[in-house]
Design brief:
This protein has about 120 residues and is α+β, with helices and mostly antiparallel strands. The chain has a single domain, classed as Immunoglobulin-like (Sandwich), CATH 2.60.40.10. About 20% of the residues lie in helices and about 45% in strands. It is built from one helix and eight strands; from the N terminus they run H-E-E-E-E-E-E-E-E. A five-stranded mixed sheet has the order 2-8-7-4-5, with no helix packed on it. The termini are far apart. It comes from Sulfurirhabdus autotrophica.
């Protein structure tokens, strides 16, 4: 009987570990606009549109342009109008962060060119 209890406890621990890994996989980010490789107009008010599933470890998202944080976004689906971007190539990223504003490793980035 005792072996059965130890085995059951071990099995429960393994299942719990796998379920937590599975929960982390539920987090996702999708940048719906602009698309990868898009060309943006330097004179236009360019928007980033996104959809986020924060998962159990995430709380909200941060927007980055060229590795610089430019916005904290609390909506899980929405858009943000960026400040004017200089001409050239830019990386735009949306990252899921926790309540302490630390990225949890779930993000999407797109490369764009501004003319």
């Amino acid at each position: 009987m005792r072996i059965t209890i130890v085995y059951s406890t071990f099995t429960a621990a393994v299942l719990l570990a796998y379920s937590q890994i599975g929960l982390a996989d539920n987090a996702s980010v999708k940048i719906t606009s602009p698309s990868e490789g898009a060309t943006l107009d330097a004179m236009a008010q360019n928007k980033v549109a996104y959809e986020v599933v924060p998962g159990p470890k995430g709380d909200h998202v941060h927007l980055y342009v060229d590795n610089k944080e430019v916005a904290i976004l609390r909506q899980l689906k929405g858009s943000y109008t960026m400040e004017t971007l200089a001409t050239g190539k830019h990386d735009i990223c949306v990252k899921v962060v926790n309540k302490g504003h630390t990225p949890i490793g779930v993000e999407q980035c797109v490369k764009v060119t501004v003319n």
